């Protein structure tokens, strides 16, 4: 097995934008601005982030697109002496794998794309549908939370919509008055950090109990430590206050692959009703978070497009029905575009499906990778 850090990521000349202290300030920035002053503060944060990336690697920043990374993968394939590329990609890795198949369909071997992205969507639509995905995942968490009997967001029988309203009210209290966390660097739990802590737990239903306990501590005891831990895990911040380059690389690639979702705060405000309809809890924050590429130092080189990969071997596209980050409809969409796709569905929670506890999913994928026999199109697992 060979793993590759795409250009700009980890050990492949990583893009670096802000140091640890600067990132601490960035992650605390209010992404639900209430007035012009707070909006200007958010815009300034996005500008500083972008300027930091540009100052670090002005030339590299122009060449970290998914198309270029896919061409790099073909060089890896050739260096290994393989006639075809056998590949497992998850989340963004599905976009990378699909892009490879579109560029080199005759060299695409056994490809598995788990937690699929839809390459035909422009950035605004991509962000809006992802917002719906987080709402779907939160609804599943809300039902589980009240069923446990010790949910800080509502007692047994509380409807998911009311659970969401209670969480939103908690976020608003934090916006007005952040709470202590016991952090060595003196960080308090802000609305933005708490929101990211909740979102982080949506990626894996195994973290729901941890989230429930963290919310209980924060809401009842004014102890934000648990939610801060979850937020730090999402941002990949270590105990020394240093961050991996995950957030930097995400922005660098995404802002090059597609034109920005929004060009100005006014555009975000006009779109807020759609985002808040998609998710009453997360919609506002995720809409404003979609503004970051507006200030990127280099122009996008990619655009949304269908990928058909005509002539490629069977490509297994995997979708999870309540996936927060890559909604199931994206797997359906990608499978509908790829000429040779076989859609494999996991009826469950969490982000991606392979290697996360479903013997049905793992067996279907392993059989394809090891024996070359793909699952039947439309196969469903739970």
UniProtKB/TrEMBL annotation:
A Pfam cross-reference name: Abhydrolase_4
Question: Which ranges of the sequence are coiled-coil?
Answer: none
What are the record keywords, sorted? Hydrolase, Signal
Q: Which InterPro entries match?
A: AB_hydrolase_fold, Pept_S33_TAP-like_C, Serine_prot/Carboxylest_S33
Tell me if Signal is a UniProt keyword of this record. yes
Asked if the keyword Iron-sulfur belongs to this entry, the reply reads no
Protein family membership: Belongs to the peptidase S33 family.
Output the PANTHER family linked to this UniProt entry.
Answer: 2-SUCCINYL-6-HYDROXY-2,4-CYCLOHEXADIENE-1-CARBOXYLATE SYNTHASE (PTHR43248), TRIPEPTIDYL AMINOPEPTIDASE (PTHR43248:SF29)
> What is the name attached to this protein's record?
Peptidase
Which source organism does the UniProt entry give?
Streptomyces griseoflavus Tu4000
